[in-house]
Amino acid sequence: MKQTELKVQGMTCQHCVKAIEKNVSKLDGVTEVAVNLANAQVDVSFDEHKTDEAAIRAAIVEEGYEVLN
Ligand code: 9UX
């Protein structure tokens, strides 16, 4: 299991939080998504044998947000 902490620009309301949670959670291998709106941070735990950080980043960008780190 791996964890990544991403800085995400563009999240401004709870609907943004839900959109990111939903799109990242649907990736096979993602076990936990924690979105912190105040810190603009998205922490994701995932099984590195099933998915990778690039796929997680893509799922966020797909929803219209920018990953800064
Ligand atoms: Mo809220 Mo987020 O109205 O892109 S959904 S700002």
From TrEMBL:
Domain of life: Bacteria
Pfam family, one: HMA
Keywords for the protein's UniProt record, in alphabetical order: Copper, Metal-binding
Record-annotated HMA domain positions: 2-68
Classification via CDD domains: HMA
Name the record gives this protein: Copper ion binding protein
